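Our consortium's second objective concerns turning raw sequence data into structural hypotheses that experimental partners can test. To show how far this objective has progressed, the report includes one record in full. It was chosen at random from the queue rather than selected for favorable results. The single chain below, 180 residues long, was entered without modification.
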Amino acid sequence: MLGFLLWGLLAGSALALEIQDLTLGTHQGYLVCSWRLVDVPVEKLDEALHHGIPFELRFFIELKKIRRFRGDKTILRHEVVREVYYNAVKNLYQVYFVGLPYPPKNVPSLEEALALAGDVEALPLLPLSSLERGKSYRLRVKAIIYQKVSPGLTSRVLRFLFRGGKIESDWVCVRFKLPE
């Protein structure tokens, strides 16, 4: 039993996420951002999904105006939420776009589901008119995968393997300034 617990701790400590290619742009008068989620523990998530334990992928987004002599001013705090389930009858993975009027998307592999849920392209943040030209800003993004655990024993064991039911990335930052 002690060996199993130690293995669980070691396996849990190796799990990490990483956000790569965080970029900013403009589209139709809005500041937009894009990124890719990598280093996702696909095997562990797939095992949990096949045991009936879905997961939720949350992206935390903060935009701050950098001020020299006072603390930075928060302009925007936003969360993007995706839920991933496995349908054993249809042998499909379902991605739900929480808070958006899209129907769930069904895909045949977890890799495709993770790409749908974790790779964000041109996410509108706020109108460019709400930012001051010539001022410096910092955009930060962080990802966390939460296991949606039911009260059964099997799910408690799997949740232990996922360090309390969550895996998270570090914050990734981009500093930028609108041209004057």
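The partners drew two points from this record. The helical segments are 2-13, 42-50, 110-118, 153-161. The two ends are 64 Å apart (CA to CA). Both points have been shared with the crystallography group to help prioritize constructs.
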